[in-house]
Amino acid sequence: MTPAAPVPDEPEPVPEQVPEQGPEPTGPLRYRTRHTTRYEYGEGVSVSQHIVHLLPRDNPRQVCTSAVLSVSPEPSIRNEWQDYFGNPEAYFAVQEPHRTLVIESRIELEVKPPAPLDPTETPSWETVCKLAADPETPDAIDASQFLFDSVMVRASPALAEYAAPSFKEGRPAADAALDLMRRIFTDFTFDSTATTVATPLTEVLAHRRGVCQDFAHLGVGCLRSVGLPARYVSGYLRTHPPPGRPRLVGADMSHAWFSVWCGDEAGWIDLDPTNDKPVDADYITLAWGRDYDDVSPVRGIILGGWGHTLNVQVDVEPIDD
Amino acid sequence: MLYYGTGPVFDEMVTGGGRLRPHWQKFMGALGALDPSLMHERWEAARRLLHQNGVTYNIYGDPQGMERPWPLDMIPLLIPAVEWEKIECGLVQRASLLNSVLADLYGKQDLVRSGRLPPALLFSDRGFQRAVHGAVPTGGVYLHLYAADLARSPDGRWWVLGDRTQTPSGAGYALENRSVVSRILADAFKDGNVQALAPFFTSLREMLVSLAPAKTPDPRIVLLTPGPYNETYFEHAYLARHLGITLVEGGDLTVRDRHVFLKTLSGLDPVHVILRRLDDDYCDPLELRTDSSLGVAGLVQAVRAGTVTVANALGSGLVESLSFKPFLPMLCRHLLGEELKIPGVAMWWCGQKEERTYVTEHLDRLVIKPAFAHLGVEPVFGASLTKAERAALTAKINERPGDFIGQEQLGLSTVPTWIDDSLQPRPLVMRVYLAAKPDGGYTVMPGGLTRMSATAGRLIVSMQHGGGSKDTWVLGRSPSEYRVATSRIQGVPSEVRSMEPRTIAAREAEIRPHSGDLPSRVADQLFWLGRYAERSESVLRILRGVYSRLSDGARPGANDQLVPLMRLMDWSGMVPRDLVDLAESGTGRGLRQALQGAVFDGSHPNSLRANVQRLHRTGAGVRDRLSLDMWRVITQLDRQCEPASARSRVDTAMLLRLDDLITTLAALAGLEQESMTRGPGWRFLDIGRRLERGINCVTLMRGTRIADGAGDDPAVHEVLLELGESFMTYRERFYTTAQRTPVLYLLLCDETNPRALAYQLSHLSRHLAALPRPPMIDSKSQHSPTAAAIRLVDEAREVLREPDIIRDRFALRSALNRLADRLPEISNLLAHAYFSHAFSRSA
Question: For the Circularly permuted ATP-grasp type domain, which residue ranges apply (chain B) (predicted)?
């Protein structure tokens, strides 16, 4: 008997073009993105079912003007809805024998830079912890669900210890989180060979290596360990080609970062520990959740199809008008 | 009456003053003098009934834990009707309350948003299944079958200890207990006007039928089990049979177009209602636990589309967490506008500051339990801890307070239990079952599963910890019920009997016994059951051949015949090759050891034991399809293969044991032929047997090298006749010593000899022609695997018809090689056509 084989999630996002600091974006930017996932199976697959997070969620910072998800072969059935965290989620099933499956999302959207924020003006991190632990406002109650352990991120004394130097007594929450982001960037080495999707956070912490997903998880874990609500955000990052060189089509990758709640007024602040910068108009948000497991771009179960290869291509193209 | 001492707790039978409570008087009168020999007799009768009915349960993490006999004490727990009504009323309220709580938490979450429940309570509980949030089940009902564990405090009040909201177990055991106890205590049962359990199961079934989407003329209801290794698998099979619904494993189901289907031999059959015994997170590897191999991928989608109803609703395990319990009185006032009728045992959730302080300051008086069901750790009795242990526990609580709950330690009431020839009081917990009614509200099973702890002072009551169980009698509210039940069948004082006509009628109306009904997995397992049974027999016959010659070296030809036998053992990988030479040169200790390994060593892949274990495992997977006798024979085989003591390892003792095993295997084969209806299930089993025996026949010929010059001697012929169980026939027909040509004819070509290859092929040919059309494959096509299998069988029969093969060594050799190549391919083709269609398919 052959059990249904789970398809491994997409490999970890690895930016191939390290974003050199481009000009600080000031106004809104328009993008066209394409994200193609291609599976080749060693043997025919009779039925495949997938759940994807490939379309962008509502977000005050970005307006989506067009979003199309196409699948080949044409699925016999598909269904789209909002997941528990409000992210667009889609299910589809291909029920005819196939050896290749291509999932492609094409999005056009406009991204605004975040409202200017003085991190030193946010409430102290201890105050935010209290607001979240004993939430009274609707925002605080929403935020409080990101305080707790999730499948891939569990708070721990080790994470709290690593976070401690950033969380000095009375320090404003956003300021402390920015410091944490900087320290992760400085202390950890980007190494796409060091980890896999399944590498536990404790190992990342011990070896100080990983990719953006690990660093986002690390940030989330540290923040939760000190008692701050934190979520994992998946999306894309526009890459700037080296000066004088053309932009490489399809060379972009999925990206991930973390977001921290700094009280009702400042709300959620997105920080990218992989590139040591607060999220700006170069960043496109797809989905957020407690960790990667809540928002993995593609996850599926297939029947049959021994062995497979997977190819993912992401292209983020700025539209100049 | 024998001495019966009670402590400071409430005793169910006697008052503090030592007097029999009124509702026990009639029962004790009917029971008569507690004469140990009479009680023993009754106990034996009970054990026999339990054994006959195959009542067992499994213990996790215990290699001996498979198939423990179900521990039943014959003295029931008695509860007067008046008292029961209060319990009923309280539990109906509680079921409705928990249902409303689930509806809120999987919907608007007002309870959290309004601050009534701390967010941590919901958000840190892994039992909260976000994937099914917003999927409102049919009629808004989350809990279709609900159970509460009740305990009685010293002042005589009942308290709720815990709730079972996702897959309540034990209702089937309660019914089984009733069927046994009502028979062995027939008089007391009759006098007691005991309320019947059967109507509860009828309404449970009606409720399940009502869950099917409207206008489904012939709804298919299944019971989804994790499989035979689950602790209560017996109950799953029992309930499925009793309710007349199909027992399935996750692998039997598949999702297409957001509908759930049962994979059967003739294709996919829609499923409308799933009564599940699988925990929430295991139900769908696509959207719940991705590492679950027990669930059905896409089930959540089907649930969301409303094409199937899962009972209980996915996610309903959430309110099993103890963290909710302290909030229930408040929630009851808020949601139902009533006071909670049966209180819960006092609990303090450490996720709140004041409660945590109370718990850590009163550890000595409390039981510390995990706040969330998913944590699954054992309760700790604060009173039994040393000072240092208490400090360590406090530190643990302070580190992750939300994970702990402190519970008041309740002195459980005791109930008389027959132990060591006397009645002794034992602490009890009673589990009571409720089923949702199609039109709202709940029905309560009048009775339940009472469990006692194994020792007087032990306050953990659990079957996993060696406790026992009891029938629970709710006494006389409607005296007419019993009379109605028994008037039909005189002298059979079992209500189970009395309810059969009704159940059968219900089943006849709703069961479709068409041939495609057989799930593909079941067909696959029956096929392998046949193969393993046959393979065990062939291994066994070789071993017996060897031992019979070793134990009687004086037997004519013994030493000569050992040679081909050892060659065969080598050929089939039962002993290492170098031992074969050792045997040729005589006997030795190394040989004995290797032989015993070939019998008893379960880790040796080709040993007898390994094959019997495979047989047993395969049988366990289709236990609900086998008669009790067949299953008993299979378990007996397994026991007979357990390693023997050193003394019984001498050759003669081994020989006796192998003889016994042959008899048991023959019993199995006999039951297959004489006790199984000739449906597709039996056909697949018999195909497995025929195919394996055919393959084995070829293996014997090749392994003894009869087609080589070296093997062409009388010793080889004699051995082949013996292993082919054809010695008598040969003697009768030929009156001579074994000679090559007639031996070959008898074992290969004779269609009247049930041991001959030709016989297997002619039966295979008939079976294959009669198989239902394989699903999803165009059966008209010449390329269909069934057609290909039939062609292979025909080809093999052609080979046997060539006259040369029994005369000419070279013709024989090439024929054997061809057969050895083709026969196993039939198995692959069948697997491709019938068993794996739903798993994989090449394009």
Answer: 76-452
